Batch of 4 targets.
Target 1
Amino acid sequence: MKTILIADDEPNIVISLEYLLQREGYRVEVARDGDEALQAFQRQVPDLVLLDVMMPRLSGYDVCQKIRENAAWSGTRIVMLTARGREIEVAKGLALGADAYITKPFSTQDLLTQVRAQLER
Amino acid sequence: MLLAGGILLTSFAYLGILFAIAYYGDKRADAGRSIIANPTIYALSMAVYATSWTFYGSVGRAAASGVGFLPIYLGPTLMAALWWLVLRKMIRISKVNRITSIADFIAARYGKSAMLGGLVTVIAVIGIIPYIALQLKAVSASFLILLQYPAVVMPPKGHPVVLWQDTALYVALLLAAFTVLFGTRHLDATERHEGMVAAIAFESLVKLLAFLAVGVFVTFGLYGGFADLFEHAAQLPRATQLLTLGGPAGTYGSWIGLILLSMLSILFLPRQFQISVVENVNENHLSKAVWLFPLYLFAINIFVLPITFAGLMHFHSGQVDADTFVLTLPMAHGREALALFAFIGGLSAATGMVIVETIALSTMICNDLVMPVLLRWQARRLSERSDLSGLLLGIRRGAIVVLMMLGYVYYRAAGEAYALVSIGLVSFAAVAQFAPAMLGGMYWKQGTHTGAFSGLTLGFALWAYTLLLPSFAKSGWLPISFIQQGPLGIEWLKPLSLFGLNGLDDISHSLFWSLLANVGGYVTVSLLGRPSIREHAQALLFVDVFRTTRRRSNPWRGSASLQDMLTLVGRFLGPQRAEEAFAGYAASRGAKSLREIEPDAELVRFAETQLAGAIGASSARVMLASVVKEEPLSMDEVLNILDEASQLITYSHQLEQKSQQLEAATSELRAANERLKELDRMKDDFISTVTHELRTPLTSIRAFSEILQSDPRLTLAKREEFIGIIVKESERLSRLINQVLDLSKLESGRAEWHSAELDLRDVIEDSVSTTQPLLREHGVELTLDLPERAPRLRVDRDRLKQVMLNLISNAVKFCDRRDGRIAIALHVLPEALRVDVRDNGTGIDPADHETIFEKFRQVGDTLTEKPQGTGLGLPISRQIIEHFGGTLWVESARGQGATFSFTLPLHPQVAQGTASPASEMTA
């Protein structure tokens, strides 16, 4: 069973994502901010992380960079979530090592399709 | 037996020869085949330096002070070594600027000043008159002596001679007539007198030969050569005295003074300037003159000592004046022809000096003294006269006669009081006063007109005081006590030992003080002032004359017709000469006839130099200006005149200033741009943040809606939970949208205001009751502290309630979890009302006191629990409060709760913000 880490500071979004992913049969871990996300990585390296960009203290970009710096975590797929959809932000995320990018509000179908695709790589 | 007739005949014959030579010389010059374009002639003509002072006076001085006669010849010899530098520069400057006299030189250098020219002329005249008298004395005395041949009798002294029996008078008149004929037959723009130069060169030869003849006669005729003569002389007790320095031969100090003096006079005596500078044909002649002239001086001085000793031995002291030995020795030995030759030699020496000196002086008098005065007073009358050349010539002739007469007068008055040599030295000291202004003018660009004027006046005044007046006193015109005790008995003003300076002979003493004052005045005043633009331009022309190979034409703009200028020049030079000159100029410009020439700056300058030759530079300028209308020079043209323009410096200063101003403006613009970009960024940030804030609740709403829609297996509990979230997020969303719009309207002034007079206590109570459910939900206790009475206020009720609700809900959010307490108080201030809302929460860090009033900023970003608010409440509240002229702020510290306070003025001046009057309605 694949493990997915959700890193987002909006509680309601977390609830929705948690429900969706668990329904699909994934194991879900939750982090409220960047530090918690990295700590989760220490405990158990997830197969995929849904990373919100706008988080307090450590932003999603920083977390992404940190994940990619660690060779042991290179197997984790990173999917970034953001309410901002500007091109430059997308490019930045991809340049930092993210594998995919989803803008909010998202279609639940799109999200699940993307997650599945990423995990099959 | 020599009769007066014989002497006179010989003399006239000699003068006739001179005249013939001069005439021939002029003729050849007019034909273009000059006979004086020859360095030997040039060097010989410079020997006009040796006058009857040399011819007779050297021996006289040698008899009194042995080798002490030498210094005045050592000076020129030394100066000759420097001629290649100094004199050549003087010649170049004078040729380039068409300078025709010392006065002209000085006046031109210091801004073409007529004042200076006049002053120099006056000094020169006063200084040279005694020298002329000296020549008269020599000629008349030698004539009288020769008349007594074979007896050697000195001319009677002491009792006054009747005027018409005074030989000197006739000599003066004769010389005046001769000079007038000689030197003023026509006016020349260059002031060159080729015939005169030829005659002068001839004279130099004659006097040298005469002196050598007497010398040879004495040394080899009377004795058996130099050795023999000096052996005999050694028997004279006086001889050894005379041959050593110190003692009667003069101290080292006086030698230095005399050498310096003669070094200056070889340059600045008017006759020397005339011959060596004005009459110079070719600069390169100087290279020969540099050694030929000292050689001449050497030659004419070889036999001075032999003649002196011979004379002393032959004539027992007191019988015969040593001044006359050159004449009386041949006479005493019966050599008639030799004596006559000697007389002619003396005559030659005297006439040479007188001719050149008076011509030079009369030029100065005419150009620099009379003409400027005439122009000032009679300019209109002058310009109406068609031919002024006659006037100019007349002025010069008159000047010559006047000068000779003045010389005669001085001779009558003071000629007996001094030996010949002393009179000469007084003149030397006078012309030495020109040295600072001239040498300074040639080598120092800082010299100014006022500086030269001060130097000259001071120097001349001191010369007069220390030399001229004492000579009057010694002649009896002033009381002798003037010298002995000083004027009015003031000891330290004694003219011969000024300020107590003793130990120098009269001449050195005078030289010291006059030159000190002269140089001091010149340098100090020049440094204190600044040269005018004209002075500066002239300074460059003079000091840098060797650097500027081509004369730059004056950028001058004006209008003048060729005919006008031709007429003007013709008036002074004579119409025919003017035509010739202009035709020559036209040919040099490549035009076939005069009519083809465009009147431009070069032509005007040409006309100016032609005129300058006739009437002096300053007068020429004035006359030309009256004909030509000058337009003022523009900045560019001034820049063209001056090489190292002080203007250029000023210009670059201005440019510097301008560029600094530009820089300042640019940096201001840059700052403004930065501010604009900042605002832009803030706007972008705002939009971006709003977008984010809106999308966040939308995400939940959409996600849960899709889940509810697509998932039939949802439990009821889950369904209710999810729908609840949708509802809450929808509320959140609409709240956010409302607040964003509200804030936007408030900030842009588009909000509507409905103000009425109300009691604030009502609003507060109303707000409290509205928030009762919230308070109960969180278990928060609220206390109200309202005064008995409160003045009414004109505000918008709903808006104020909005503020209260915001503050209360904030307080609820942040007060203590377990024991939440809120206190609301209303205070009446003299000019306003103040409301405090206090909570007992964890407080707000002072660093965040202002941050919380920023859009979308919420304290609680640092808390683990994400705050519920939008982050816009406080900014909106502040906008509202400030609209009514009040202030909203917070007082808090960590751990001590927070108090939010706002004031509302009772009588706001003008409604703050941008509320439109139409929206203010009474309820």
Target 2
Amino acid sequence: MRISALRDLLSQQGASFKERFGVEVPSVISDLKTEYHAIRDHVGITDFSSMQKFRITAERGVDFLENLFPGNVAKIRFCRVLHTFLSDENGNLIADCYIANNDEDFIVLCDSVVDDATLKALMNKYGAQEFGLEDITATHVVFSVDGYKAWAVVKELCGADVLGLPYLSVETYRFEEAPFSLFRAGKTSEFGYLILATKDMGPKLLAKLIALAQKNEGGLCGTTIHDTLRLEGRFFNIFAEGLSVKDPLALGLQWMIDFDKEVFIGRDPIVTRREKGLTHKIIGVKAESALEDLKAGAFIFHEGKQVAQVQAACFSYGLNAWIGLALFPVAIAYPYLSFNLEKPDGLTIATIAMPPIMPKSLTVKLDEL
Amino acid sequence: MDQSMQATIDERVAVIQAIKEELIRRLNLPYKPEDLHEDVSLFGAGLGLDSLDALEVVLCVENCFGIRIPDNNIAILRSINTLADYVLEHKAKQGGAA
């Protein structure tokens, strides 16, 4: 199992750990509710070094990456980031990826549902070694800075020009003379950044980020609360609905695909499924009562028949209710319809339009930070 | 399926389909209507539209349904479903008034 390079520091902060696809990740630092409010109301720092990380020169990278990913890598402008996925040869999801065009090279960050060796074997099959793909997973760390005060933390670390960075962009900054990459990206629906730095910089940089977060009434968070934040914000979660549904089309990820591309891993099965038309797709559901427990795997009934299944669920602290994503037949995959949970006369749940919350970051003005 | 559920779906499908077709046409999106999930974010993550595109989204609703979207109402512009919610709510109010 791959252990976090920052395990000692995270342990000192109270982290509990869990294993996820061959990687140890910091699960919870304090408690989920505290971490939720840190990010929704202030700012949270999270160690996402569990991501698989790769670098390839811009000169050779385009051809290699174009053959792998469904997004159009050739069209990524300088200093911009593409959000796409990686599928297996059957067109089933295996990784949620950011690809950054960062000056002379491309950086690829992956949240995947396969271990390091399996992902590397897939890339090698498509010529990673010949193209010179560098695996920087073990030599680099990734931190996220999320929350409606994330800008304040990153501004203090990098300078005021970070306020002008558009969503899905990348820039290089320095910390104690050493360079690191700052991605303007995030999956909480609050302001978000990812920091990619060398392992050597990790401890000092993380300590600095925690101090800046605490100055802004936030703190260190675990990865588990991000499952709730992603679901509330209707950001795709490879570790929840991605893992159970697998089909990018049923998950509504068509926007990550350039259907004009003639080659990417899993293209033919995905295109065939698109041509046949969707039979099911994922939509939001909400329990009527705060006491009602919504669990992934639960079946949903209508008029005595089982019609759908919950694929991901969480308790939304923002709504004080359980919410989830369920896979419905397309004919009834619409919001504001009532169904029963677990059995034909079970508790009532309703389909909803997602995302069900309005994050502070969409309403805040810069001078309020 | 009971008639009331079918009527709710039919009314929404008509609005959603019109919004999707108009967005694809106005913004030259490289997708078919069925490729656009109704919950996908229009700005930032998701379709990645920018502030210039926002005007086209507003005009899309105004031209298709004759309904004006209030200035600075970000909540309405978040997804196809939130646009449809606004249109259907407006239609219901008009129906109630009539």
Target 3
Amino acid sequence: MQDAVFNELADLALKGSGQAIPRSKSYLIEARLAPIARREGFGSLEDLVHCLKSRANPVFAAECAAALVSKDTWFFRDRDALNRLVTDILPARLKAGNTGRLKVWIAGGSTGQEAYSLAMMLEDDLPPALRGAKIEILSTDLCKSAVERARAGLYGHYEVQKGLSIHRLMKHFTRNDSGQWEISEILRSKVSFRQHNLLESAGGLGKFDVILCRNVLSGMDRSARSRVVDSLAAQLMPGGLILLGQGESLIGLTSQLEPSREFRGTWAAVDPNRTPVATSVA
Amino acid sequence: MKTCLIVDDSRVVRKVAARIVKDLRFEVAEAGDGAEALEYCRKQMPDAVLLDWNMPVMNGLDFLRALRREEGGKKPIVMFCSIENDAEHVGEALRSGADEFIMKPFDAEILESKFAEVGLI
């Protein structure tokens, strides 16, 4: 890939989604934009870049930027974290909130597997402490086609065999005539999906008890990460928690959040009445 | 090291599966039909069995039912591996004692995910 083409597209990704794509991963750009280039009839990425530069088409530019973000996900990815959410964190939040309602936001939920995994756990193994609770699950992603796929609840042969047991597949999915697996109406009714760019204000989404933002920040450039984290923090209900992916940390990124004292590995709004937890690395 | 018995009448499928299963750090044994597989199990119960459905001599389902009646035959974790993957076939496999069901075609990621699902890795 020519430097000029790479630079244009890397810049588009950075501005559109905060993703920092290093030069060594230019193959990702080619792989992720190839379907769009083919659909639009561009012979090469150079032609696509030329089109982006010569015609101001923010919708097309946003689509390209969204396509450049990883969509990689699977059912029950990081089962331990989901277990902890269902057995410890949600019951504690329910007790603290006293409203009988819980709101969970999966920020950067791609094609919906994480949201549906959570819905499946709540359906199959609801802990007694959550009985009767009204639990709303919202999954958002910047990519329109990912959101549409998530909403349709349709998954392919390979997707339904990654992370899903045959028991869960048989219980919650049916195969349609085209060979795709469709998730049950019951689970679909428990999750809602919206297109949302994490770089923009999330004010319209409401406040949440728990925000899962897993394996999203790690691909972003530092300033985008800070911006996203502050915007997530603004959507936390009092006492709410943020769960990041394995190995992801907010240390040094925000002054608004600190490691939760109650649930190790999660993040909570800084309580101005308490002495801060030491987060600096000596 | 755990042992996995791969039962399939296709040598190609056995070879592909064996390569993946070896990468998951299993010792691999192969059988071309249910009767061969049963003979193997009578000598040495494997930890896991990857089992095709349609095979000559003795099919996968008959093997599975016979295995579960053998002494020590409840121990192996049996994962059916078949293109017959409608709800009826899957249901019958599970009722007959299968622990998991893998729909063909499969790849390394699917096998790894299913092995993890049943607690083999």
Target 4
Amino acid sequence: MFKKRTWLVVVFACIFITIATVTVVANPFTQESSEYDTELLSQTIGKIDTIIGDDPDEEGYQGKIVTFSGSSDSEEGVEIETIPFDSIHDGETLPDEIGISIPVSNPEWTEFFYNFSAGSTLRPRSSQTRWAYASGGCSYVTKGFDLFTLPLVLPQGSRIDYLRLYYYDENASVDMMAWITTYDGMGGVSDLVNVSSVGNPGYSYNISDFVGHIVDNATNSYVLNFAAHGTGDSLRLCGLRVAYRLP
Amino acid sequence: MKHIIGIRAIISLILVIILLSIVPASIAESAFKSYEIFSLQIHLPEGAKIEYLRLYFYDSTYDNGIAWLTTYNGSGDLTDLVNVSTSGSSGYGQSLSDLFEHIVDNHLYTYVLNWRPYVFDSSMRLMGMRIAFRMPEGGGWSASYSYLKVAGCTFTPRNSTVEWRYPGAGGIYAASWSEYMPFINK
């Protein structure tokens, strides 16, 4: 009899401890920071870009500029037939195209503007792929291999010059890759540029070749795409920054 | 003897599962999901001065959700600029943050809106957020505010283990955390 009661006490004690542990570990009533561990804030981590003008996507750069040669390593992975579609030049102007500003051929360009997006805000193109938040605005793939995307909205007529990939890489055998891709809504796809991670361990960034693409929002939608080429928190996307100029 | 211990172990496991299933879903789920966050990338004009964050919500619980604006630099560093919580438990409402001042620097930072509901059912909904900022003008600041207002339904969770639902009117609420504990997903 005594043993039976002891057994019941042990069972309910285990249940209580389980629930209490879950609640305490979850700590639902205290944390207001965006991080799991606020100590991360005081860490000195990563390769931070503190020198302005040492990279081609910053003002004052004097070094060599490399122009992107084409869409090698297509993010689509398959050949897609591009369907020509440009209603402005078909002689018929539709109501949502009246008064659109046509890009000027040789305008004066402003200094750089930036469209900077956190890696943690990109989402997979398919629900078969899963993701998780790491820290510092970075995310990683936990399952699957679909690309992660985010709309890129830029002013009409602006010129896209560079794409910068911010990442955390502890996997020497795999390189991550990001693209700027345009879609015309009729099956046409074009990768404007891509940039890969390089072998630096830890936080780092890499800059694409020069793009020089004039934004045409009437014809194209612009999307940031990213492929981790692997799963796990050793391959993290921390940000994508597009450097562009206004006419 | 081993046979009896085995039966007791199975019964104990069943009891734990039954107990966890009996616990109100909101309590069990809040314990498991309290850290889960929804986020949205935003872009603001270079040089603008951000002053307020306004939170639009539906809150019919005693818990309060919280929203905040965070900057990241792409190299693992972050700063939470300001936060604002829901208040009351009478349904639709809005809260305004304290005044703060931050000059937008798109070269160094990316800006993300975050939302932590704490409660994972339709009693806590994010309906939207609004940032009030001033544009630079003549060496000073514009006398009038400019706004960036976003709907709650455009936010998505930072982890794919969270499910969410659309309650209507541009809102969103966290629904469950079902991938690993299906028996508490009611």
